Amino acid sequence: MRKNLLPVALLMFSMLLCAPAVSAQGKAKTGPDPSTIRDPDLEKDSFHNLEVARNYFKLKKAYVAALKRCEEIIAGNPNFSRIEEALFIAGESSLFLAGNKGKQRPSLYVNYDGTSKRTLSADEFRELGREYLTRLITDYPNSSFRKQAEADLAALGNAKVKTESRKQ
Q1: Which of 40, 74, 106, 133 has the most crowded CB, counting CB atoms within 10 A?
Q2: DSSP state letters, 117-140
Q3: How many domains does the chain have?
Q4: Per-residue model confidence as pLDDT tens for the chain (168 residues)
Q5: pTM of the entire predicted model
């Protein structure tokens, strides 16, 4: 019995010493930041759209379809974990459409202004591409697509400078 008394006493003593440290860890009163909470279904849908847009962009050279998929992601899920790639593909697709490149005609991209439909001119496509790439650079400065976006903006001219940029 005396053999067991010493280890049990040491165990009880160590538990009493560690109790304040354990209770200090359980006082988290706030949850995660609401801007980082992501809906898993929306994230899955956005990821699928990004894969399809990447396929249109890289393999099929269907820049109108890639641009529309990316715009759907950007508008529907601004907290998407891979939004910088969607912005990059949208910007690049717009620039390629401005240069009349790819397998789809730029006239297939249609904007709806109320009840009327209209297509964008080459200058409007360039401006749209500039907006997407500028947003990529300002909002996501650590992105792996930043260097290519900066090179494309340098070829276009100066990027538009935003007065306020969103934090990542």
Answers
A1: 133
A2: EEEPPHHHHHHHHHHHHHHHHHH-
A3: 1
A4: 677 877 887 778 777 776 665 555 555 566 677 767 888 999 999 999 999 999 999 999 999 999 999 999 999 999 999 999 999 999 999 999 999 999 999 999 998 888 899 999 999 999 999 999 999 999 999 999 999 999 999 998 865 555 444 444
A5: 0.75
In this structure, is residue 99 part of a structural domain?
yes
Phi, psi at residue 103, to the nearest 5°?
Answer: -90, -10
Taking residue 162's Cβ as centre, other Cβ atoms within 10 Å add up to: 13
CATH number at residue 74: 1.25.40.10
Helix H or strand E segment including 6: helix 2-24
Strand residues in the chain grouped as ranges (E): 110-113, 116-119
Residues composing the chain: 168
